[in-house]
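Record type: monomer structure entry
Structure origin: computed from sequence
Chain ID: A
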Amino acid sequence: MQDYILYLIKNIGNMTDIPTEFRGKGLDKLLETCMFANMNEATQMNYVRKMMAERDRAGQLGYAHHQGREEEKKAIARAFKAEGVSIDIIAKCTGLTLEQISTL
């Protein structure tokens, strides 16, 4: 670890990419911050836009996944309800509210 830190201190002003041998050593955030500081303003703006787009996409995927799970829960609740299972048990098993189940 000392070798990595000494290398980092010596070369921090010139780094434009994270060396492969540094990945997973607990220095990723520090290296990323240093690389960002070495970028010119236009490159920094592009980097920020790219990161925002990636986070937006991750949020969209997470929301879509959540919506899919909700639809799956509702389908299960509908099947339970059709079989005459009590609404309280359906709520307990699916995590849906009594109100959500009653509108199915």
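Annotation 1: Residues 57 and 63 are 10 Å apart (CA to CA).
Annotation 2: The two ends are 59 Å apart (CA to CA).
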